[in-house]
Amino acid sequence: SEVYLFVKVARMRRLLFNAKYDRRTESRENKRICEKGKQTREKRKSQVCRVFRVKIYISHLNETQKEHLKMLFVEAKWLYNDALTFMKDHDISEYDTKIVTVHCLDKDRNSALRPLCCRAD
Question: What Å distances lie between residue 92 and 20, 43, 52, 85, CA to CA?
Fold first, then answer.
């Protein structure tokens, strides 16, 4: 009786698995993954990774320089978030890197256009 029940449960599991598993779906998914991989590799061919390490002595800066340095980091965050928002609807290769205004949220969580003042073109 236990063996019969075990075989019946195993057979039901197999039927459920086969109903959910469709080889055509797997093939489409694999093709989509392959295409995304090709797009990523093509995109990365033109990218150049740069890292700048700097040591800044804050005590040697005047107030204007400190404010400018702070705004560099704030505006970098705005630009990064703007690019992430753009990527929700578009391909990142279409993003305009020469922009001078970005969408960001003010203190009341309202969307606003902000100019980027600290651009180093």
Answer: 34, 9, 23, 10
Q: Which two tokens stand for residue 39?
A: 């797009």
**For the segment 56-104, what is each residue's pLDDT rounded down to a tens digit?**
898 999 999 998 888 888 888 888 888 888 888 888 778 777 777 787 7
Give the whole-angstrom CA distance, residue 58 versus residue 70. Answer: 11
pTM over 0.70: no
Alpha carbons 116 and 121: distance in angstroms, whole number: 12
| Amino acid occupying residue 46 | S
Cα–Cα distance measured from residue 100 to residue 102, given in angstroms and rounded to the nearest whole number: 7
Instruction: Name residue 111's beta-bridge partners.
Output: 105
And the tokens for 72? 């560099």
